[in-house]
Amino acid sequence: AGTIKRVVVTATMASICGSQREKNPDHLWSELDKNDAPQTGYSKGKTAAEAKAWELAAAHADKYDVTTVHPAVVLGPLLPGQKASSTMLLLKQILDGAVVPSMFGLCSTTDVAAVHVAGLKEASTAGERYLVCSRDQYSTLDIAELLKEHAPQASAVDLAAWRADEKVAALKPKKPSTDNAKACALLGRDLEAAAKFVAAAAKALADA
Question: Which helix (H) or strand (E) covers residue 132, if one does?
Fold first, then answer.
């Protein structure tokens, strides 16, 4: 009906992280980066989707302001009746006792939602990208340790098995890994601590 003026697109960190660390191992991911070498079908699709969003934004600049939000691995409470899937399914596997070697940046559902809302409300976000990600990279062992410390639902998590796994031992998460200052400035606060939203996600899975 011609009433929509601002569009916030849920993109992903996968359209940000490219070959930059091959050139500089100390590189911190930020909104200035674009995935110049997507390797998986997921990253290829998400990178192409973001490019198309900005193409459409330019073509319709007289009608719409566009903002993109780029979450890392998102964890947090589930909606009523929602089943675990995607990143929450990974957390469920860990809680169920599986050893799953991987590493990535993390963010909370609360922070992702808050950045979306700010994108709709704040005129200054027009034409901007916002990376929502923990400053540090986390291995799944890090997550298992957070669960054992902060989540009573983690009784099946066997840290000895995690630490004995060769693939887990080979993981070297980068700390720090990401410059999240732009999202923090938009929200006027730091992003949520991983211990808080990992524990909240574990509780949500137990209550589902």
Answer: strand 129-132
pLDDT tens sequence across 57-74: 999 999 999 999 999 999
Instruction: Residue count of the chain, please give it.
Output: 208
Residue 43 vs residues 76, 169, 180, 187: alpha-carbon distances, Å: 23, 26, 20, 27
Instruction: Please report, for residues 110, 189, 205, the alpha-carbon distance to residue 82 in angstroms, rounded to integers and kept in the order given.
Output: 16, 29, 10
CA atoms within 13 A on the CB side of 144: 23
CA–CA dist 36, 99 (Å, integer): 31
pTM above 0.90, yes or no: yes
State how far the alpha carbon of 88 is from the alpha carbons of 77, 101, 170, 197, 203, in Å: 9, 16, 24, 12, 12
SS3 119: helix
CA distance 116 to 47: 19
